[in-house]
Amino acid sequence: MRHAATLRRHAATRTGRGRRDAGQATAELAVGLPTLFVVFLLAAWLLGAVSAAARCADAARIGARLAARGEPDASAAAMAARAAPPGAEVRIRHGNELVNVEVSARIGAAGLGRLVPDLVVNARAVAAAEATNSPPAPAPANSPTASAMPRPAASAPARAGP
């Protein structure tokens, strides 16, 4: 019987199972779980930053489109701010028949302190200012252009039925 126990002990040592490996799985788990947690945390932070950058780009396009159409800057900035991440800044500039809208937002890790860095994402959109489509004002009756304009031909009254 002693001989069988000794053989079992030597067989366990040869196959890699035995007392020398006791606790190794626990040590690997103790190192692996925090590493896995940090990787998932950074992946979630990166996904949030990419999402905020896309929202800033959409907000800049919305603001540029509205300002180029002739909307007041305050309403264009308000609509852009609604599409942007919370706390974003919207800046609208006009010049050379172009409208330039820049949206920037600070992305932090709420409650995580110094584990992940703060990041500022920016987006800019430029649109050509559209001409206003207001009809021209009619010329006064005593102006020279009013008399030079041809008068429309009178149309025949419409007849009902055959």
UniProtKB/TrEMBL annotation:
Annotated region described as Disordered, given as residue ranges: 1-21, 130-162
Compositionally biased tracts (Basic residues): 1-12
Comp. bias (Low complexity): 142-162
Protein name: TadE-like protein
